[in-house]
TrEMBL record:
The keyword Isomerase does not apply. The keyword Membrane applies. NCBIfam families: Pr6Pr. This is Pr6Pr family membrane protein. Keywords: Membrane, Transmembrane, Transmembrane helix. The chain crosses the membrane at residues 37-59, 80-99, 111-128, 140-164, 176-198.
């Protein structure tokens, strides 16, 4: 097995195992019915993005060398790396201090928010041809987080539940949530440009 395939295998196993374990724990913590528990589980940007990483790594793992496709595209790979990087940054800089759980939950938090992001960043740096990532693709990269934000803000009032405290309209009100959302937009924009810039400078 090549170094690239081995890294993809590690990423896929780590992401899938962590997601499955987190789903099992979610049922243990949940005070809602099965359907709502599952919906809430997949309402976390962390879960959606780690799932995207897991699918990407799995598809690339079984793909033939030089095979073309959606996940083989440098822009797609850079976008996925961008998303999981934001997952890691937001958790470690903003949310980590709010989590008090220990044991398995603490381990899963580290796997989903630190280990998988770092593995994906390393994969991008070593194996993705960053020179093919383009600035004109950035608006398309922002569609996924934009759709997620719209979905979350629209569903929140009906579910009386928000996945993250900084977008909890019930607790913070719309002015603060919109401000926080604007900050996140700027973060996504900054790192989008940063990854394209860095990709054009790296040797691969």
């Amino acid at each position: 097995m090549s170094g690239r395939k081995l890294l993809l295998f590690i990423i896929a196993i780590t992401a899938w195992a962590s997601l499955i374990a987190q789903l099992v724990l979610s049922f243990g913590y949940s005070t809602t019915d099965t359907t709502e528990t599952i919906v809430r589980f997949f309402s976390f940007f962390t879960v959606l993005t780690n799932t995207l990483v897991a699918i990407f790594a799995s598809v690339q793992l079984v793909s033939k060398p030089n095979q073309q496709g959606f996940f083989a595209n440098a822009n797609t790979q850079t976008a996925i790396t961008l998303y999981i990087t934001i997952v890691g940054l937001v958790f470690n800089l903003v949310l980590r201090s709010l989590w008090k759980e220990g044991g398995l939950q603490a381990l899963l938090n580290d796997l989903l928010h630190s280990v998988v992001p770092l593995l994906m960043i390393f994969y991008w740096w070593k194996y993705v041809d960053g020179k093919k990532a383009t600035y004109k693709s950035i608006p398309f990269w922002l569609i996924y987080p934009a759709v997620y934000a719209i979905y979350t803000l629209l569903r929140g009032p009906f579910a009386t539940w928000y996945p993250y405290p900084f977008i909890n309209v019930i607790e913070l009100g719309y002015p603060i949530v919109l401000r926080n959302s604007a900050i996140l937009v700027l973060v996504f924009l900054f790192f989008s440009f940063f990854f394209v810039f860095l990709g054009k400078k790296k040797p691969v």
